[in-house]
Amino acid sequence: MAVPKRKMSRANTRTRRSAWKADLDDLQTVKVAGRQMTMPRRFAKAAKLGLYEPRDEYQG
């Protein structure tokens, strides 16, 4: 485990932590049961196979 050599100030710690941000999912348009739907790419194949029913907020 890494051990810091010096104490890091509260301002520096919070700045370092706030710099990391998660990215939004890329949405892909998929035709499922005759309807065009927009959903995250990782769900597209499952939706085509009928294993995943997308929620309303993903529909385009």
UniProtKB/TrEMBL annotation:
Q: Does the keyword Ribonucleoprotein apply?
A: yes
Instruction: Tell me which GO cellular component terms the UniProt record holds.
Output: large ribosomal subunit
| Statement: the UniProt record of this protein carries the keyword Iron | no
Q: Which residues form a coiled coil?
A: none
Q: Which Pfam families match?
A: Ribosomal_L32p
**GO terms for biological process, alphabetical:** translation
Q: Which UniProt keywords apply?
A: Ribonucleoprotein, Ribosomal protein
- The residues that cross the membrane are none
GO molecular function per UniProt = structural constituent of ribosome
In the record, the note on similarity to other proteins reads: Belongs to the bacterial ribosomal protein bL32 family.
Matches recorded under HAMAP family: Ribosomal_bL32 (MF_00340)
Q: What is this protein called?
A: Large ribosomal subunit protein bL32
Organism annotation = Nanchangia anserum
Q: Could you read off the lineage of the organism from its UniProt record?
A: Bacteria, Bacillati, Actinomycetota, Actinomycetes, Actinomycetales
